[in-house]
Task: inverse folding
């Protein structure tokens, strides 16, 4: 047992910490070091969804219906998947038009309707009050458990106002909310201090809940397996079938899933943190997976704690307090205190945000419009209304908290935490049809939305609120009859079984009927009576197409108003200085100073209306502005014309941009092609000069020997013959050289004329060997042909392939010693699906340096003994061109002094290489190789 | 709607089917998987899986566009 002063001190210190955090965050924000511009703070602030209900109530629910408690968190997970589609659109619209609450959003969407805004605000108030009461109850009862455990019966002292802790909590909450929730009149200004404090509370409650979960699972029981094993053995738990069935059946499960999915979007506090306090749309990306993760983690230990509590306590401790009772029963007072603080966090976080959110709705959508209707607030009156609006908001905050407290005193003690929360869920689910349909369907009309909301709300009142009041005994005899037999004994009107539909649990039942009525009225009226006013159609188009249009040009006023009048109007709500600053700023935007008496540009009128909307709500702002602007607002057609012109201009410039981009691309391609052309040209020049050089050498020697013969007629016959032989040999070399140059250029340019057919490489090799037989016989070298494989078919041009083999053979014969030469021509399987052809000689071999360049044009291996090149330097270059064109490769392996092996591999016929692309590619590859070999030189 | 939007929508539909009747009925059976009740295992696995896929989708997209990407001109 803990001493009361310890608990009170801990709570007070914690609250003081919250104030300090909020204060610091606000100060930092004022100095420009915003803490909320961060996806993680954003996500944590959305976790305000987890209230005392999650903290204490989930365990209670799990003891009754097993895993059904998870629906409350699975629904939001499914909705979070869609945030990028739905929430982002809502955020964009709300920022553009400075909408500050769900009520304001609905009012603005349906023609800035005051009635709709007021109705939505009332629904939010009705839905939120019991929810706040739930938090107070949780705090108060956790306090009692902490002090009185193991006594669980309250001694009744809680009824004495001064002894009731909930009262102190309410006072502190009111103080906090007023201090950090009403700093500015403009409700679109961020409440940074509040958001950061709430994010901090989300961390505290998560840590506290994980701590108790780990304590129960791993310290009280030795791990989850042991816990589940004992639970499975416990007959009381087995009877409930908590783990093998989902009590409530289909209807209940689906209803809870849908209900909580809508709640995460439409609960006023969720709207506040996820829409109004959003700094950057990109934060939604992170939140859409991090927030579900937070939910998953905080729910991991709910079931273990519930089972442990049932095993440990059975019935004598209320299941809603297991979380607290388990550590206390084991004398873990510090842990108990931590859990209490966690629950306190969860409760206060919710109460603060919900209160400020509803307070803004009530003040902007009910109180201010009502005041505007009073004569003395009409436009002629001067005076500072900003202070008034802030005061109203503060009073409303106190009133909402007082209402919650009252509800708590009246009936909250009678219900489990969860049932109160679910009642609130059904209330706010009524916002779903007008908001979601309104976001994506222009046809949804104001009349339908109003009727739908009204109908759904009435059903909620009748099927959920009334019975809960009756159960609390507030309604006396009527209530008893109502619950037993339906109102005045009319059974088919029973609030939990309308028209005899009694198979559902009350929540699913109310959800079904209210949604049915709400949706059918909204859709039905929108379809049956489609005529809408201009402002309705304008707003519908602006909302649905928010991503299509630029907002800059949305001018809806064609009437006239002077700049001075507008400035005065703004000054009444924002203060004189800010108002003149805003007008001055607009003047700078227009490029000149605006005088007070001149006619305001429609854009200024629109800008001022938007600014006012942030302070007093969209509907009121419109009323205020229209009281100043003389003349009509633009018609729907007029507005659409302006908007379409704008979007046409955008479209036009977009296309222009695209055109210029295409142009740029074409230029770039042309430049590239030109550069390539230049390169090829240069290569050609090099080639020509090299060929000329090669041609000059034999020519020079022919000419030299010819001149010697000419000038020395008396030369002896032996020498003359010798010289003539040189001339003939050099002429032959010249011819060969020219032939090869011709071959080379033919191969390089005319590969498309090649005949592609299946060629048996083995047979071709034999033919080549026969054709060159004379060469070997002359030099007395031995040629051996080895065909290793039967399958040697490749695809290619037979003449070229023949040339390839002959080139390799004559190359080998050239470099072997006459009389001692041994050459082997081998055809067999290569790497992968290829055929290999290899020519091995026993010549002097090739140095490593030469191996790299031997396939380049005109590269000749200088023969150290003879000192004179033997080939033209083109034979191997031609070989490589041919293998390249046949998708193959060629290389040489050699050790100097130990012969050389030239090998080439060609893909087998019937492979995937296609006839056309190979040859087309060849030209490209050839160009690349050419430039590559150019670089090597 | 962007490509991401369509993928997310499909994922949400898939999630709604996986986390609902009649598929849940298949797993609402007596028995243990790795020492944990089958249904408990199933729900948390599907839940974690959905979160993982969204995280992957969103992180990849945000890397492609950068955190302060301009809004799409066509929705």
Result:
């Amino acid at each position: 047992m803990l001493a009361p002063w310890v608990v009170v001190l801990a709570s007070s210190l914690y609250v003081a910490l919250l104030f300090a955090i909020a204060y610091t965050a606000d100060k930092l924000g004022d100095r420009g070091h915003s803490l909320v511009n961060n996806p993680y703070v954003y996500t944590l602030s959305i976790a305000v969804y987890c209230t005392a209900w999650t903290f204490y109530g989930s365990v209670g629910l799990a003891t009754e219906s097993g895993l059904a408690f998870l629906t409350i968190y699975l629904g939001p997970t499914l909705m979070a998947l869609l945030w990028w589609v739905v929430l982002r659109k809502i955020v964009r619209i709300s920022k553009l038009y400075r909408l500050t609450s769900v009520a304001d959003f609905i009012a603005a969407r349906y023609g800035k309707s005051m009635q709709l805004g007021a109705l939505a605000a009332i629904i939010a108030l009705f839905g939120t009050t019991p929810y706040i009461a739930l938090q107070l109850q949780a705090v108060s009862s956790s306090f009692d458990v902490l002090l009185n455990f193991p006594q669980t019966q309250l001694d009744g002292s809680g009824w004495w106002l001064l002894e009731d802790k909930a009262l102190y909590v309410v006072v502190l909450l009111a103080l906090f909310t007023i201090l950090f929730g009403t700093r500015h009149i403009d409700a679109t200004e961020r409440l940074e201090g509040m958001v950061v404090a709430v994010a901090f509370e989300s961390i505290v409650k998560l840590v506290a809940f994980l701590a108790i979960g780990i304590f129960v699972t791993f310290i009280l029981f030795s791990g989850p397996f042991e816990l589940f094993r004992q639970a499975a053995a416990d007959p009381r738990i087995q009877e409930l079938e908590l783990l093998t069935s989902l009590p409530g059946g289909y209807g209940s499960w689906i209803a809870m899933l849908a209900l909580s999915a809508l709640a995460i979007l439409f609960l006023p506090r969720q709207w506040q943190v996820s829409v109004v306090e959003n700094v950057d749309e990109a934060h939604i990306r992170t939140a859409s997976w991090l927030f579900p993760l937070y939910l998953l983690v905080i729910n991991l230990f709910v079931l273990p704690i519930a089972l442990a509590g049932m095993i440990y306590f059975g019935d004598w401790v209320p299941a809603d307090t297991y979380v607290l009772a388990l550590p206390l029963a084991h004398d873990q007072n510090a842990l108990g205190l931590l859990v209490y603080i966690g629950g306190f966090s969860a409760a206060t976080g919710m109460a603060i945000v919900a209160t400020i959110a509803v307070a803004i709705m009530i003040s902007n959508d009910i109180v201010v419009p009502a005041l505007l209707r009073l004569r003395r607030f009409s436009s002629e009156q001067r005076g500072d209304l900003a202070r008034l609006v802030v005061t109203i908001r503060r009073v409303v905050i106190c009133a909402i908290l007082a209402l919650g407290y009252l509800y708590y005193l009246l009936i909250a003690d009678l219900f489990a935490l969860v049932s109160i929360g679910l009642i609130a869920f059904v209330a706010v689910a009524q916002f779903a049809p007008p908001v979601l349909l309104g976001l994506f369907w222009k046809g949804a009309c104001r009349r339908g939305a109003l009727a739908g909301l009204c109908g759904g709300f009435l059903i909620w009142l009748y099927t959920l609120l009334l019975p809960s009041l009756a159960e609390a005994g507030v309604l006396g005899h009527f209530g008893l009859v109502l619950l037993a037999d339906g109102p005045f004994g009319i059974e088919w009107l029973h609030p939990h079984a309308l028209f005899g539909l009694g198979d559902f649990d009350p929540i699913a039942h109310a959800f079904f009927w209210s949604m049915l009525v709400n949706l059918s009225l909204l859709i039905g009226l929108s379809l049956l009576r489609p005529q809408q006013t201009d402002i309705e159609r304008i707003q519908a188009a602006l909302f649905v197409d928010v991503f299509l249009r630029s907002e800059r040009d949305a001018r809806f006023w064609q009437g006239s108003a002077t700049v001075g009048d507008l400035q005065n109007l703004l000054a009444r709500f924002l203060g004189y200085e800010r108002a003149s600053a805003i007008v001055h700023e607009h003047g700078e935007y227009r490029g000149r100073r605006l005088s007070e008496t001149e006619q305001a540009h429609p854009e200024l009128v629109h800008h001022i209306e938007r600014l006012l909307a942030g302070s007093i709500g969209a509907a009121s702002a419109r009323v205020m502005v229209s009281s100043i602007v003389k003349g009509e607002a633009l018609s729907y057609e007029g507005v659409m014309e302006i908007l379409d012109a704008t979007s046409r201009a955008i479209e036009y410039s977009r296309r222009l941009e695209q055109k210029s981009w295409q142009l740029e691309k074409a230029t770039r391609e042309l430049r590239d092609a030109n550069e390539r052309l230049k390169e090829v040209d240069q290569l050609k020049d090099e080639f020509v000069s090299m060929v000329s050089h090669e041609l000059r050498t034999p020519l020079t020697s022919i000419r030299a020997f010819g001149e010697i013969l000419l000038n020395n007629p008396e030369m002896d016959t032996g020498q003359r013959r010798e010289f003539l032989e040189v001339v003939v040999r050099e002429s032959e070399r010249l011819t060969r050289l020219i032939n090869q140059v011709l071959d080379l250029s033919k191969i390089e340019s005319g590969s498309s004329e090649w005949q592609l057919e299946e060629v048996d490489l083995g047979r071709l090799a034999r033919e080549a060997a026969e054709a060159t037989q004379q060469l070997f016989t002359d030099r007395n070298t031995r040629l051996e042909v080895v065909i290793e494989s039967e399958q040697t078919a490749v695809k290619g041009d037979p003449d070229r392939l023949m040339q390839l083999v002959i080139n390799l053979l004559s190359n080998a014969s050239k470099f072997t010693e006459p009389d001692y030469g041994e050459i082997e021509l081998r055809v067999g399987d290569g790497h992968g699906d290829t055929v290999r052809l290899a020519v091995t000689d026993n010549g002097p071999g090739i140095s490593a340096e030469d191996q790299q360049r031997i396939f380049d044009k005109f590269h000749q291996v200088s023969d150290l003994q003879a000192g004179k090149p033997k080939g033209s330097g083109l034979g191997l270059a031609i070989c490589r061109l041919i293998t390249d064109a046949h998708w193959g490769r060629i290389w040489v392996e050699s050790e100097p002094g130990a012969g050389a092996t030239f090998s080439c591999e060609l893909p087998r016929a019937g492979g995937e290489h296609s006839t056309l692309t190979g040859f087309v590619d060849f030209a490209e590859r050839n160009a690349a190789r050419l430039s590559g070999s150019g670089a090597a030189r | 709607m962007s490509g991401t939007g369509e993928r997310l929508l499909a994922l949400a539909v898939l999630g709604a089917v996986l986390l609902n009747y009649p598929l849940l009925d298949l797993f609402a059976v007596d028995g243990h998987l790795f020492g944990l009740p089958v249904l408990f295992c199933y729900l948390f696995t599907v839940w974690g899986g959905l979160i993982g896929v969204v995280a992957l989708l969103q992180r990849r997209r945000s890397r492609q566009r950068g955190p302060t990407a301009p809004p799409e001109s066509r929705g």
User: Anything to note?
Assistant: Strands of chain B lie at 32-33, 36-37. The mean pLDDT of chain B is 75. The radius of gyration of chain B is 17 Å. Chain B has one domain: 6-65.
